[in-house]
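[scheduler] slot 2 assigned
[scheduler] job type: sequence-to-structure, two independent chains
[scheduler] chain ordering preserved from manifest
[runner] begin chain α
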Amino acid sequence: MSIEKVRAYFEGFGIAGRIREFDVSSATVELAAIAVGGEDRLESMSFKLGDEPIIVVVAGDQKIDNAKYKAQFHQKAKMLTFDEACAFTGHAPGGVCSFALPENVKTYLDVSLRRFETVFPAAGSNSAIEMTCEELERYSSNFSGWVDVCKPKEG
């Protein structure tokens, strides 16, 4: 299960005790917000870039802007399927996170996150960990940079 992998990963940084596990689902942005008792602050999305998977972490009230994504990555956004996400990242959708990833999975953070003092990324299914954006950058596996690939969700 991915939460055990993330816990072991965080043990190396001395922060595993900060993981919060929930009795309720945190599989969507909205459910995660309810679980942490706050607003929907972020979402980790998995894409295929060429033949390699990537994770893009974005603010929960944002969505991928296809034109910005293509300008940044030089190809159209193509999300991983459920099976691909599990196989390539080791995390199932709903628990996809930027932690404990294989070496070939790069992590990008969208600038939409920078407005928050803290965020609550998933740490595997039905869990989260509160951290600053600086910590998110430091602890994300294979951090590759900050990007600007989002726009606000409508409605």
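[runner] end chain α
[runner] begin chain β
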Amino acid sequence: MTELNALARQPETIDYSAPSQYRFSILQLPKVQFFTTACNIPGISMGEAVFPTPYKDIPLLPDKVTYENLEVTFLVDEKLENYIELHDWITAIGFPEDREQFKKFRSANADRRPDSVTRSNPSDSVKPRTPDSAMYSDATLTILTNKNNPILNIAFSNVYPVSISGLNYTNDASDTQYLSAQATFQYQLYKFEPLG
């Protein structure tokens, strides 16, 4: 039953969420994970559904959820290793040269996708393994308290990259500015998993 008493509805925690208190991990991209400087919790929307009438369209509850993209910004290391591992993943999915790119990437990364049980409940059944599961990865955004204790996981299922920004080299910079890149990912869905 919903509590109607205003005093009983006061929040128990009055600390705010700090934008720098997080950890991002993605199994397929360990070097991107280490250098991540920004990440988002994507927005979610329901769209619109209406019942047309001659006078006014009546809004109805829609039945499809749309997720925004997962955006990750990371510093690029000196040898471009983290940029290249993401570039290789995208080109393997699109195989611009030949179909062997897809096959080689899939066989080389088959061990990066665990066949373990689901994250949230160890008693759940084992995830089905498919030959193309190496083309996807799971990712986790962990939200931390102000004392760096993990309190919440946002678990992304079946993540894959759709774009990566370019790198711009220039001699015009007066101070040392390190290169960063932004990667955009699609995914099946995400869930909130409270910790503790």
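[runner] end chain β
[qc] chain β: Helices lie at 30-34, 81-94, 100-108.
[scheduler] slot 2 released
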